[in-house]
Amino acid sequence: MAEVADPAQALPAVRHAEEVMGTVVSFDVRGGEAAAVQTALEEAIAQLHVVDAVFSTFKENSQISRLGRGELTVDDCDPEVAEVLELCAEAERLSDGWFSTKYAGVVDPTGLVKGWSVERAARHLMAAGASGVSVNGGGDVQLLGTPGPERPWRVGVSDPLRPGSLAAVVSAAGADELAIATSGSAERGVHIVDPGTGKSAVTDLVAVTVVSPRLTWADAWATAAFAMGARHALSWLESLPDVEALLITAGDEVRCTGGLGARLG
């Protein structure tokens, strides 16, 4: 996903791209006092690297890996581990088990932790006095405030079946906060696990894009909905408050929640 250009007046921007968590996290920060914004940006970047060190399932010495092996208890870990696992438990409950952190005995909160950490970074920058923040973590985006007077954030959603094309453009007009998260198989193959089988999810979907105020939940809901498949996902997403979604099937069928149209443009 990427910000879509708008001809209206925009505030000066501080931009930065950071390689972390196996992806690139891009920052676009508008307004605020320059020194305060720069300090907050450096702090947000440092927080992301701490999250990577604590939660990476690819690092044998991360706290989440050691927790999974029984070498640590939750109380032994940083407080953020308990916070994230509580959020994951809530996501599992609200998705009727389609979101899960337990696969073949391994504790894996990665379906939520990236969204949570990117949202936290964005909020840290707003708290430092920025008037608009966009943080894009490998295609999952948290938007806060505005990039300029009477100018909303706009984000293009990639078309998984037509590389280089957009399936939609989401506008944050009228919203102080908006998040967009996509789960799918186009770029990374089928990497989402079916909690019921412990194997790669067999689904008729190629992409699910979820739009909601908070990236923590948008990330988790996109993961769960993709594992469900189109038949169940759309009705489930419709039942969630403040959530809209765009689903694209392998047969190139587009399905949307009823209120998504108000967010396009």
UniProtKB/TrEMBL annotation:
The keyword Transcription regulation is annotated on this UniProt entry: no
InterPro entries: ApbE, ApbE-like_sf
Keywords attached to this entry: FAD, Flavoprotein, Magnesium, Metal-binding, Transferase
Cofactor(s) the protein needs: Mg(2+)
Known catalytic reactions: L-threonyl-[protein] + FAD = FMN-L-threonyl-[protein] + AMP + H(+)
A molecular function (GO) term: metal ion binding
Assigned EC number: 2.7.1.180
The organism's place on the tree of life at top rank: Bacteria
Pfam families per record: ApbE (PF02424)
Name used for this protein in its record: FAD:protein FMN transferase
Species of origin: Streptomyces flaveus
